[in-house]
Specification:
The protein is an alpha+beta fold and about 90 residues long. The chain has two helices and five strands; from the N terminus they run βββαββα. Strand 1 and strand 2 form a beta hairpin. The longest helix is centred in the C-terminal third of the chain and has 17 residues.
Length: about 90
Amino acid sequence: MFGGVAFLINGNMSVGVHGNELIVRIPPETTDAALKEPGARLFDITGRPMKGWLLVDGAEIKNSKSLAKWVNRGVEFAFSLPKKQSKAR
């Protein structure tokens, strides 16, 4: 999808890696508040940013507490989403 590594929970992305930044999926309604946090910006590699998808700067996630905070947010949101059905092959 974006040329990086992603971690899925029940088929839903929680966090991923894009270059040296962390992609974090959060509840869309929390996007504006999250963008005020250090290192956060909209995930926009197509020119069409979506609420609920953020990139967190690599410098910000070098701190293990900050990394854990962002990863936990992504995991929590992914667990809140309906499980995706796997396609039979």
